[in-house]
Amino acid sequence: MRVDREVKDTAAFVLENAPQIRAVHSKESMKKIIERQRQAAEEKPPENLVDAMQRDGPAPVPVITLSSDVQNRLTKPVDPSLLPYLYRSPAI
After folding, report:
1. Residues 6 or more apart in contact with residue 22 via CB below 8 angstroms
2. Could you give phi then psi for residue 78, rounded to 5 degrees?
3. For 28-64, how does the pLDDT look when each residue is reduced to its tens digit (9 = 90+)?
4. Which residues fall within 8 angstroms of residue 16, CB to CB, at 6 or more apart?
5. Is residue 52 classed exposed, middle or buried when 0-12, 13-18 and 19+ CB atoms within 10 A define those classes?
6. Cβ distance 27 to 8 under 8 Å?
7. pTM recorded for the entire structure
8. Residue 42: what are its φ and ψ, rounded to 5°?
9. Which of 30, 55, 57, 65 could form an S-S bond across to 11 if both were Cys, CB 3.0 to 4.6 Å?
């Protein structure tokens, strides 16, 4: 089988060139991963980004709400002792 030989060669190539993958996977498990990925690629054609954006539509507009507690914070003066400095100046 040409496909089986090709998958086996690809698995061996990946394991030779990626020691972090070799530490986790054997040749057989790598071969199964490659076969699964090829089947998934055959079943689902690559999606064009423009088509996906047209299908999904524009991003929803964020909802910004104002409440009374936020309004009070905007007019409140800043207390320097609450500022997140790593080393605060003793003069403040």
Report:
1. 15, 16
2. -75, 130
3. 999 999 999 888 877 776 678 888 888 888 888 888 7
4. 22
5. exposed
6. yes
7. 0.46
8. -70, -35
9. 30
